[in-house]
Amino acid sequence: MYRVELNPDVAEQVEALPGSALAPFMEVWTTLELNPWGFPPYNEANPDGAMRALLCGDHKQGFAVFLTLEGKRRVAIVNVRWAD
After folding, report:
1. How far is CA 33 from CA 29, 45, 84, in A?
2. Rounded to whole angstroms, what are the CA distances from 39 to 12, 15, 16, 26, 57?
3. What are the residues whose beta carbons fall under 8 Å from the beta carbon of 56, sequence distance 6 or more?
4. Is there a contact between 28 and 66 (Cβ–Cβ < 8 Å)?
5. What domains appear along the chain, each with residue ranges and CATH number?
6. CB distance 66 to 52 below 8 Å
7. Model's pTM, two decimal places?
8. Can you tell me the distance from the alpha carbon of 75 to that of 84, in angstroms, rounded to the nearest whole number?
9. Do residues 40 and 59 lie in contact, with contact meaning Cβ atoms separated by under 8 Å?
10. According to the lineage, what is the superkingdom (predicted)?
11. Strand order in 74-82's β-sheet?
């Protein structure tokens, strides 16, 4: 299992999410704890890179970028956005 972390800036992004985004974001969190490598690379030119991105929500209106630190079993979410 991986430990998912937010830095203070990302925590502010999460706090600013609309109520409709909270359930999808929690699903993302749970999935990242179990399998962060199951998402596409942030940079397609670096398919094995630790930086990954995902879309979430019923209409894929949520976007998150995260870094997997395999040796430490940590996932650092570095950006969260939600389009209304």
Report:
1. 6, 25, 26
2. 24, 24, 24, 16, 15
3. 24, 25, 27, 28, 62, 63, 64
4. no
5. 3-82 (3.30.2310.20)
6. yes
7. 0.92
8. 26
9. no
10. Bacteria
11. 3-6, 74-82, 62-69, 51-56
Helix (H), strand (E) at residue 58: none
Q: What does the pLDDT read at residue 84?
A: 78
Q: Are 2 and 70 in contact (CB under 8 A)?
A: no
The pLDDT tens digits of the residues spanning 2-21 come to: 999 999 999 999 999 999 99
Residue 17 structure tokens:
């999410």
CA–CA dist 55, 70 (Å, integer): 22
Which run of H or of E encompasses 37? none
H runs (alpha helix) in 1-84: 8-15, 19-34
